[in-house]
Design brief:
- The structure is a single chain.
- The protein is α/β, with parallel strands linked by helices and about 150 residues long.
- The chain has a single domain, classed as Rossmann fold (3-Layer(aba) Sandwich), CATH 3.40.50.
- Strands 1, 2, 3, 4, 5 and 6 form a 6-stranded mixed sheet that branches.
- Bound molecules: flavin mononucleotide.
- Flavin mononucleotide (FMN) binds next to helix 1, helix 2, strand 3 and strand 5.
- The site of flavin mononucleotide has 22 residues, from helix 1, helix 2, strand 3 and strand 5.
Length: about 150
Amino acid sequence: MKSLVAYYSRTNITKKLAEDIASKTGADVEEIKPKKDYQGKMGYARGGKDAIQEKIIDLEALKYDPQDYDVVYLGAPVWASKAANPMITYIKQNEGKFNEVKFFITAGGRGFDSTLEQLEKYTKKPLKTLALTTKEVKKDDYSLDSFID
Ligand SMILES: Cc1cc2nc3c(=O)[nH]c(=O)nc-3n(C[C@H](O)[C@H](O)[C@H](O)COP(=O)(O)O)c2cc1C
């Protein structure tokens, strides 16, 4: 089974999970990099606004075509109870190219369900989902066994 992990991460929490999933599955890794700056306090404010509007932005060139993979693991932080808009941009840019999907999301603690629903709306019904708090990821308080199965 050929797998791709495609993720966006602003402060490396989702990135940590992405790398863990990739190392355990042998998946290729696509880091989604927005050209727009979401770092710092101003970036936080921009991110919240853009996520609510599901704003499409420019991304750096992608390395992989999701169509070439049996499963794509899509990972993003929750922003304003939605998926961070760089992920929504990636999904829209690759519409119709996902064979099977699994979602992994991280958040301080709120907005998991609405984010998973949004991701499903823009892609398809996922094989599996994983929703973890920032704290759980930081403390390694999670297991990937059933998610990557
Ligand atoms: C713009 C913005 C909006 C956020 N909105 C939420 C939210 O609605 N609910 C929540 O629990 N956490 C929210 N967070 C916190 C992040 O989801 C959380 O810190 C996440 O684990 C960060 O992942 P990352 O390091 O991969 O970017 C928000 C963070 C940012 C930057």
